[in-house]
């Protein structure tokens, strides 16, 4: 679910402007999973543009507090959301931790890095939601440390049905600055893509695992 429509449209426009999101239905990208995709999203680029990262920071901070209440801690999912997570924590004046994909193999073997106490309320910041599996592993790690995860806030989601099911099953509320639906509407409006290309992009989102495999 998006925080609000205006933010979703503005965020989509900014991501397109800096090529953090690329749309190319004629020459699809190949994801690490092997899926063929007409869209590629690299939200790490946000950090390289001060005015845009400040916008993302401010929208996250405002909407996280409005939606979840002010938490005790902000957690970023490594590695993509560490930078923006720190910005949000700084804006809210809160402690920050980050969550590795798996525990370290040496030393203290931490998966959650930083100071976190049992019972603290945590909002997780993520850069991108596809199926949601890696994001929800971070939630599981935080819960294993005794944290009370209030929800997750992400920059962008593809809006896959499987992700919605995964978050529902994990009992995690997800809100995003923007999503695939608003991106496509904005991309047509601003002439990044044609209406025919929009139809192709919509077809992909219905069955991304099999699209382009014929």
From TrEMBL:
<dbReference type="GO" id="GO:0019856">
    <property type="term" value="P:pyrimidine nucleobase biosynthetic process"/>
</dbReference>
<comment type="similarity">
    <text>Belongs to the purine/pyrimidine phosphoribosyltransferase family. PyrE subfamily.</text>
</comment>
<keyword id="KW-0328">Glycosyltransferase</keyword>
<dbReference type="InterPro" id="IPR029057">
    <property type="entry name" value="PRTase-like"/>
</dbReference>
<dbReference type="GO" id="GO:0044205">
    <property type="term" value="P:'de novo' UMP biosynthetic process"/>
</dbReference>
<feature type="binding site">
    <location>
        <position position="100"/>
    </location>
    <ligand>
        <name>5-phospho-alpha-D-ribose 1-diphosphate</name>
    </ligand>
</feature>
<dbReference type="GO" id="GO:0004588">
    <property type="term" value="F:orotate phosphoribosyltransferase activity"/>
</dbReference>
<feature type="binding site">
    <location>
        <position position="130"/>
    </location>
    <ligand>
        <name>orotate</name>
    </ligand>
</feature>
<feature type="binding site">
    <location>
        <position position="104"/>
    </location>
    <ligand>
        <name>5-phospho-alpha-D-ribose 1-diphosphate</name>
    </ligand>
</feature>
<protein>
    <recommendedName>
        <fullName>Orotate phosphoribosyltransferase</fullName>
        <ecNumber>2.4.2.10</ecNumber>
    </recommendedName>
</protein>
<feature type="domain" description="Phosphoribosyltransferase">
    <location>
        <begin position="59"/>
        <end position="174"/>
    </location>
</feature>
<dbReference type="GO" id="GO:0000287">
    <property type="term" value="F:magnesium ion binding"/>
</dbReference>
<comment type="pathway">
    <text>Pyrimidine metabolism; UMP biosynthesis via de novo pathway; UMP from orotate: step 1/2.</text>
</comment>
<dbReference type="InterPro" id="IPR004467">
    <property type="entry name" value="Or_phspho_trans_dom"/>
</dbReference>
<feature type="binding site" description="in other chain">
    <location>
        <begin position="126"/>
        <end position="134"/>
    </location>
    <ligand>
        <name>5-phospho-alpha-D-ribose 1-diphosphate</name>
    </ligand>
</feature>
<keyword id="KW-0665">Pyrimidine biosynthesis</keyword>
<dbReference type="Pfam" id="PF00156">
    <property type="entry name" value="Pribosyltran"/>
</dbReference>
<keyword id="KW-0460">Magnesium</keyword>
<comment type="subunit">
    <text>Homodimer.</text>
</comment>
<dbReference type="InterPro" id="IPR023031">
    <property type="entry name" value="OPRT"/>
</dbReference>
<feature type="binding site">
    <location>
        <position position="106"/>
    </location>
    <ligand>
        <name>5-phospho-alpha-D-ribose 1-diphosphate</name>
    </ligand>
</feature>
<dbReference type="InterPro" id="IPR000836">
    <property type="entry name" value="PRTase_dom"/>
</dbReference>
<comment type="function">
    <text>Catalyzes the transfer of a ribosyl phosphate group from 5-phosphoribose 1-diphosphate to orotate, leading to the formation of orotidine monophosphate (OMP).</text>
</comment>
<keyword id="KW-0808">Transferase</keyword>
